[in-house]
Amino acid sequence: MIEVTPHARGAVLPVRARPGAKRDAVLDEHGGTLRVAVSAPPEDGKANVAIVRLLAETFGRRRSTVHLIAGQASRSKKFLFEEMTVAELSALLPAILNSPSPENGPSPDA
Question: How far is CA 35 from CA 8, 31, 67, 69, 105, in A?
């Protein structure tokens, strides 16, 4: 289970990044984090920008409301979703994790 935590400006989502992948995708949950893959390389913040874009699109948020707040140079990161509660962000996770959408690719059960 992914542990979304409260923040004064919204909710924080822990993410495990896989930069340099073949395509951008939300993969699954692992070790209490949301695993994501992005094609951008892990240099000059390119992968971080790609992850912000992917998370904003996946969760239906504006890019300006999703911020990397920890783990700039690490695969383990924390993203702040402004103006969202822990309950709101947590409620979206099951549908996102179980969705065989083009961004997410086929579900692991497929």
Answer: 24, 9, 17, 17, 13
Expressed as residue numbers, the domain containing 23 is 5-98
| Separation CA 52–CA 42 (nearest Å) | 14
> 10 Å Cβ neighbour count for 28?
15
* Consecutive 10-residue averages of pLDDT for the chain (110 residues): 96 98 96 97 96 98 98 97 97 89 42
What pLDDT is attached to residue 100? 63
User: Distance between CA atoms of 78 and 11, rounded to whole angstroms?
Assistant: 10
What single-letter DSSP state applies at residue 43?
Answer: S
Read off the pTM: 0.88
User: For residues 48 and 18, what is the distance between their CA atoms, to the nearest angstrom?
Assistant: 10
Q: What is the CA radius of gyration of the chain?
A: 13
85 belongs to a structural domain? yes
Give the domain CATH number at 35. Answer: 3.30.1200.10
